[in-house]
Write a structure and sequence with these properties.
alpha+beta, globular, 281 residues, Jelly Rolls, 8 strands, 13 helices, single chain
């Protein structure tokens, strides 16, 4: 679990960061003892959230709650960058207790399996970016963060922006099932079967909610699994490709390079865990 005191010096009520995200896989999906708000400022961002992976476009604003487990990675070649604000639980408790009629059940206080996420565009995105950037140089006081949050929830985001269309439960179930080897080894067919819907319907809803087709979504999971095996085992590349469900080795190499910017062999050399014989003294 990540803790707010790691980021905040005594007396500060919030932490603000403008982050260029790495293209390498995140180290770990984490929960927190604080609330977090992030906006995709530019590029595309892969977001792992509560067992689901989604592709976020510029303007996506997400309200992360303490129990949510998530991690972020820039989509290769897109220059993914976010604006990120973290604040203590007591600020959230104060706001929802005082302004419950307007904000309870929304934003950081939604009750769904996944956190509330809103796609902003045009003037709304610009207002959100400008509001977040004011935190960069401000005194990091309790009054400042609570004023910012109230402004975001009542002014920057109008009623239209607050409307969200959550992913249907069957798609969430299928996306989570696709992380299991017995499913992803079968490719998109395994995910579609887990969804229990027609191929056309699954493809349409997958692109709408995950930002990827079933084939793209499953292939990302397969390549992530391959990367884990490359860094943690001595299996031959061809064996690993087959274990991930790839019969065409050239196709596997192409997808791996697209996702990680290097060959499987190059990835293994870069991420190989040291043995007792080659560990630094």
């Amino acid at each position: 679990m990540f803790r707010i005191d790691t980021y905040l010096p005594p007396g500060d009520a919030y932490h603000f960061a403008r982050k260029n995200l790495p293209e390498t896989p995140p180290v770990i999906e984490h929960s927190h003892d604080y609330f977090e708000l992030f906006l995709v400022e530019q590029g595309q961002v892969h977001h792992w959230i509560n067992g689901l992976e989604e592709l976020l476009e510029p303007g996506q604003l997400t309200f992360i709650r303490p129990p949510d487990r998530h991690a972020l990675q820039a989509a290769p070649g897109t220059g993914g960058r976010i604006l990120n604000v973290m604040f203590r639980e007591d600020s959230a408790t104060h706001l929802v207790s005082r302004y419950a009629p307007e904000i309870a059940g929304n934003f950081f206080w939604s009750n769904g399996e996944f956190p509330m996420s809103i796609r902003l565009a045009g003037p709304q995105k610009e207002r959100a970016v400008n509001a977040m950037l004011t935190l960069q140089s401000s005194h990091r006081s309790l009054a400042r963060i609570e004023h910012f949050l109230l402004s975001m929830m009542t002014h920057v985001l109008d009623a239209t922006a607050r409307t969200q269309t959550p992913a249907p439960p069957w798609l969430i179930t299928a996306a989570q099932a696709a992380r299991e080897p017995r499913v992803f080894r079968r490719g998109a067919e395994g995910m579609i079967e887990a969804a229990g819907r027609s191929q056309a319907h699954v493809c349409r809803e997958s692109r709408r909610h995950l930002g990827l087709s079933p084939t793209q979504y499953v292939n990302r999971i397969r390549i992530q699994h391959a990367a884990m095996m490359l860094s943690g085992s001595e299996y031959a590349v061809a064996v690993i490709a087959q274990d991930c469900g790839f019969e065409n080795l050239s196709y596997f190499h192409r997808l791996f390079r697209e996702q990680y910017g290097t060959t499987p062999r190059g990835y293994r050399q870069r991420h190989k865990k040291p043995t007792p014989l080659d560990a630094p003294i």
